[in-house]
Amino acid sequence: SRAAAVGFCFGGMVVLDAVRSGHYPALRAGVSFHGVLDAPELYNPAHHKVQHNPAHKCKAIAFHGMADPFVSPEKLEEFKHQMEGLGIDCTVVEYPGVGHAFTRPEKIKKSDFEAGFGWDEHAATDSWTKTKTLFREIFGEA
């Protein structure tokens, strides 16, 4: 299979939920850019609401601005712990001092940065480069 899912913000959360569920066997990679990083109880193995399929091998990468107002440091740690507990090969790339929506070049106004949003050229470029590298590792050269 050559299926991958990529999402930004809420879409990033949706991608990570698809990876967490393990119910999309064709999905080989999931990438979240400034997504909502949480650890929903739905995927808590103790509650058995959604059983993760451990045979499903899907790599995930989450690109996260450490100054993102939508994800507290506690939520970030809960997310990492849950992904590890589910046995998901997930890399979290953290960008210090970077806010939400760092891939959006129109987010350059003072009011954007004051609200916790903001374009960051390094984070945007680095995250896209790392995404292409992940896809080459999984799918080979295009």
Describe the structure.
- This protein has 142 residues and is an alpha/beta fold.
- The chain is built from four helices and four strands.
- It has a four-stranded parallel β-sheet with strand order 1-2-3-4, with helices on both faces.
- The chain is globular and about 45 Å long.
Compact description:
35% of the residues lie in helices and 18% in strands. With 142 residues, it is of the alpha/beta class.
Write the layout of secondary structure elements.
Elements: E1 3-8, H1 10-21, E2 27-33, E3 59-65, H2 73-85, E4 90-95, H3 110-114, H4 121-139
Helix content bin: 25-40%
Weakly predicted, low-confidence segments: none
Number of strands: 4
Major sheet: size, sense and barrel closure?
4 strands, parallel
Radius of gyration: 15 Å
Q: How far is the N terminus from the C terminus?
A: 14 Å
Q: In percent, how much strand structure appears in the residues? A: 15-25%
What is the overall pLDDT average?
90
Structural class of the helices, strands and pairings? alpha/beta
User: What gross morphology would you assign?
Assistant: globular
Throw out a few tags for this protein:
142 residues, 4 helices, 4-stranded parallel sheet, 4 strands, alpha/beta
